[in-house]
Design goal:
- This protein has 10 helices and 9 strands.
- With 279 residues, the protein is α/β, with parallel strands linked by helices.
- It folds into 2 domains: 172 residues, 3-Layer(aba) Sandwich (Rossmann fold), CATH 3.40.50; 93 residues, 2-Layer Sandwich (Pantoate--beta-alanine Ligase, Chain: A,domain 2).
- Helix 6 packs across helix 7 and helix 9 runs antiparallel to helix 10.
- The longest helix is centred in the middle third of the chain and has 16 residues.
């Protein structure tokens, strides 16, 4: 596995592969890798001859007072896991590489960026769209893979790629879960053993709302309110629990394709999750 930090070295490696006619799949991450990330790598290997993974903790997607400084960083362990998983190239740029001095250009996807997590984390999705667009321009992959756990992020990226006519196919990969249903996340490391057990309630709440929709209930507000109360009683501080159409618009009573999304705080961790429902 090549371990590269500069854009010039990255492009030279990619140039050689492209001269051979080899396709490239890309998995962008912020490191502290877990089984969910490695599953993305396995799916990427099915999509292209070469797999590139990036690790960059992006400062522009953290709001003031968030955990940028304390975000878990495990570069040596991450590199070892990626090497064992058969990744061809690990790109680990520093902040100066990603945001050269004087950088003032950002990418924004209005509308869907300001709702849900965007309303609680101002500027977050501007940072996400900007760094992903920059990475796409650096790597220029045929395909890029993202976890569906970050459903709003995935929606923002799909829209950005379509609006800017970027020549990359974006694939969402189903969420990988712990045995108790908790969605795998780098921020799960903030949870104590007791809190990890407690966090199983998140997925249970999503399944309960899914069951209500499948049973024919269409009072979306009632379902949302009930599950918000369940989360509060379970020790969470929820930001939201909502039922949306897959484009994140408000659903109507005639709709049959939904995504249920939540964000809630437990101890030091802010956790997100979602589940798709087709009835």
């Amino acid at each position: 596995m090549k371990h590269i930090e500069s854009v010039a070295d990255l492009r030279e490696s990619l140039r050689i592969w492209r001269m051979r006619g080899e396709s490239i799949a890309f998995v962008p991450t912020m490191g502290n890798l877990h089984a969910g990330h490695l599953h993305l790598v396995e799916e990427a290997k099915k999509q292209a001859e070469r797999v590139v993974v990036s690790i960059f903790v992006n400062p522009t997607q953290f709001s003031a007072g968030e955990d940028f400084g304390s975000y878990p960083r495990t570069p040596e362990k991450d590199a070892a896991q990626l090497r064992e998983s058969g990744v061809d190239l690990l790109f680990m740029p520093d902040t100066e590489t990603m945001y050269p001095r004087g950088s003032s250009t950002f990418v924004e996807v209005p509308g869907i960026s300001e709702t849900l997590c965007g309303s609680f984390r101002p500027g977050h999705f501007r940072g996400v769209a900007t760094v992903v667009c920059k990475l796409f321009n650096m790597v220029q992959p045929e395909v890029a893979l993202f976890g569906e756990k970050d459903f709003q992020q995935l929606t923002v990226i799909h829209r950005m790629v379509a609006d800017l006519n970027l020549p990359v196919r974006v694939i969402g990969v189903p969420t990988v879960r712990e045995a108790n249903g908790l969605a795998m996340s780098s921020r799960n490391g903030y949870l104590s053993t007791e809190e990890k057990s407690q966090a199983a309630l998140l997925y249970q709440s999503l399944l309960a709302a899914k069951a209500a929709l499948e049973a024919g209930e269409r009072d979306y507000r009632s379902i949302e309110t009930q599950q918000l109360e369940n989360l509060k009683e379970g020790g969470f501080v929820p930001d939201y629990f909502v039922i949306r159409k897959v484009d994140l618009a408000e659903p109507a009573s005639c709709d049959r394709d939904f995504v249920i999304l939540l964000a809630a705080r437990l101890g030091k961790a802010r956790l997100i999750d979602n589940i798709r429902v087709r009835v």
